[in-house]
Amino acid sequence: MADSESGLLEKKSFVVVTGASRGLGKSIASKLVAALPRSSFFLFLSRNNAAQEIIAAELMKSFPGVQIGCRKYDQGLLEQMVFDRLFVDVLNDYALKVSDFEQSIVVHNCATVGDVSKCAWEMTDVKSLQKFFDINVTGMILLNSAFFETFRETKSRLIVNITSDNSKVPYPTMSTYCASKAARDMFFRVLVSEDPSVRVLSYSPGPCDTDMLANVRDKSSNHELAGDLKNFYNEGKVLSCDTSAEKLVAFLKKNTFKNAEYVEYDDPL
Ligand SMILES: NC(=O)c1ccc[n+]([C@@H]2O[C@H](COP(=O)([O-])OP(=O)(O)OC[C@H]3O[C@@H](n4cnc5c(N)ncnc54)[C@H](OP(=O)(O)O)[C@@H]3O)[C@@H](O)[C@H]2O)c1
Fold first, then answer.
1. CATH code at position 60
2. What is the pTM of this model?
3. Is 19 in the pocket of ligand 1 (CB under 6 A)?
């Protein structure tokens, strides 16, 4: 359903991007800064704050007027206070009000792929399994709720859920990753069934040249999967993060995607 008043990329927005420090998140953050009005505010969240501060400084130089704040954030550290205070504190720090913005946007990009040396039977360690789902699922849900609790008054609300074909296809040695991506996709399908006024793009970026993909290629104990990925790299089938991020922005610009339904890089606009 297209927005009748103005497009998703035309509104002054408060935008949160998780995992903006590298990989796909860095590219998505950069493309959104370029695409949205300069009066928008961006908040970059990841554990490597130094890296995202450098990215933010470069973007503010290239796009004068845009404001970017960065906060060190570990989505696997589930402290109630962090979620209760994060957005309120950032608004205060920058002397901003929710009513300054026409739209609130969160890009749930950050994730971990987990230990791809292990098969499903070998998932025996309580702490590492809990931490994994805290980062990929529970922390994401808590951040999402905290953000829209703070920004509940914004008329236009947009969620970008970075998903993967792993949410649909069972890849060996990626049991927890596949399960976490499927869980996120369904979480947002339920969310829009409860509140269809929120737009959700569940975007699967395709195979992108990042630390995460290289880790699966180099560390998966499934030789077929590791071999397939090596071939992907050798045959030049791995996408640059910028290429995939541009397609994501094109889907948002067109704004005809089905709410919270799976959309892939390869899909026609
Ligand atoms: N690459 C692909 O081929 C591919 C394919 C399909 C889907 N995806 C999805 O695309 C998204 C980005 O993946 P990527 O390939 O760019 O991965 P990546 O290179 O490993 O980057 C992951 C990003 O997430 C952040 N992150 C990781 N753990 C975090 C934590 N505990 N708290 C906060 N931030 C954390 C990292 O920042 P810090 O380390 O600084 O915290 C980094 O910015 C993920 O959701 C992934 O599942 C990727």
1. 3.40.50.720
2. 0.97
3. yes
